[in-house]
Amino acid sequence: MLFPYVLAVTALLLLYLRPWSRKSAGLPLPPGPRSLPFLGNVGDIDMVRPWRTYSEWKAKYGPIVSCRLIGQTVIIINSEKVARQLLDQRSAIYSDRPAGPVPKLFGIDFITAFLPYGDTFRLHRRLFHQALRPDAADSYRDLYLDKARQLLSNLLGSPEAFEKHLFLYTASIIMSVTYGYDKVSWDGPPITSIAKLAELINVGIQPERSAILTAFPILTRLPPWFPGASFQRIAQRTRTLALESMNEPFEFVKRNMAAGNAPKSMVSDLLNEMDGEKHAYSEQAVKQVALTVFVAGFDTSSSTLSSFILAMVLHPEAQRLAQQEIDSVVGIDRLPDFYDRPSLKYVEAVFREAIRWHIVAPVGLPHATSSDDVFEGYFIPKGSLVVPNIWDMSREGHDDPDVFRPERHFASDGTLLPDTIAAKPMWGFGRRGCPGRFIAEAATWSAAVHLLAVFRITKAVDESGKEIEVKEEFTSGVVCRPVPFQCSFVPRSTDREKAIRLGD
């Protein structure tokens, strides 16, 4: 057990011998905490919830902070305004990813999120925008509604398995949009393989592991049986699953296209647009982009819905007011539709607040600078890691950021404050912004409004009839979701319950 720590310390010592920062024309780095030899500021950061440390630094040093992590210059951005100025307006400099061996070791270096900024990344982005632009996302509205009603049916059948149903709802939409799968099951291919791949990727890109392997890449050559090299076994499994997950659903689409019965999907549309030898992209690029859609959207969307349900359990008055509005606008004879959305203003506020209240991706994946830069008198060296603290940005401008209060999304005259999907920090910045945000947002809203329309979401009770306590606790990691909790889904209307069970 001692061996991994010996290697880690050795890596830190080697890195400390490298120059970790430079100055340009005497300009300083952004302010930040003093660092220790070898470790830098590793000991200063809450490694479980680093975003909280970054927010504390903001209070002391300002919206842009620099620190050292294992010989690497890291720039923390704690302000949406600064993030827009750098990551959006200077995206030519701030769109790279940190170099390191982890994506290649785990066989996921083709995933768009991990690509360095260059021709392949630009091609992926072009294919994304071609397939997932706002009008394309709107064309799937009937799909979102259909899958939301299937979610309701699943919850009526086994409400205790609601987390599984949320995963299946998210996965079924992604698989339909991307590959044209009409029906998917949680325990059948290809969902099993792709969901496991997404889970292993979250394990593989843990910051601690990435930092050590990047600092001392010779570790990537250790055999799987070597003490402390369990990551190699995870990497082997991930590489196998990545190939399976990329190829099998893609071949499913090609078989359907050859038979003349392929439904509309991102993959079929892109393949149809390939023009013989003159096409500007390959089948391999389509495969890579398609798998990226699932990996990027699967965990975040289901986690957002789980957080929404937790918010409704803990804040029954907000739930009651939202349901009152649905009953007034939609009535009790039908289920909500997208054309109701502009009139469901309080529901919209509840939806926005559930996302803001506990952002599921509190720290964005690090950007990297491709050249030196100067910002407000501070020097930002080439190769710096640039980390947007989304968690803090979601709390900017609020005196009570930890309180769940939908009313904060209204202006003083009672109108909803302006809100555009593309401008939300949770979707990322600049050329690294999430290309699937329009589909993800619409699908999540559809599920949320249907849950409110059909169920009272309450605390569960034990055998003696006593309420089971629910805590406001979340996991940590790249994606954070509520710690598993119990709740009840009580149908609000007998007629509506019967209609859902009958598939009406």
UniProtKB/TrEMBL annotation:
Molecular functions (GO terms): heme binding; iron ion binding; monooxygenase activity; oxidoreductase activity, acting on paired donors, with incorporation or reduction of molecular oxygen
Signal sequence interval, chain numbering: 1-26
Known pathway: Secondary metabolite biosynthesis
InterPro entries found in the cross-reference section: Cyt_P450 (IPR001128), Cyt_P450_E_grp-I (IPR002401), Cyt_P450_sf (IPR036396), Cytochrome_P450_fung (IPR050364)
Annotated residues for binding of heme: 434
Transmembrane segments: none
Cofactor annotation: heme
Keyword terms of this UniProt record: Heme, Iron, Metal-binding, Monooxygenase, Oxidoreductase, Signal
Family of this protein: Belongs to the cytochrome P450 family.
PANTHER family cross-referenced by the UniProt entry: P450, PUTATIVE (EUROFUNG)-RELATED, P450, PUTATIVE (EUROFUNG)-RELATED-RELATED
Name by which UniProt lists this protein: Cytochrome P450
Organism: Suillus discolor
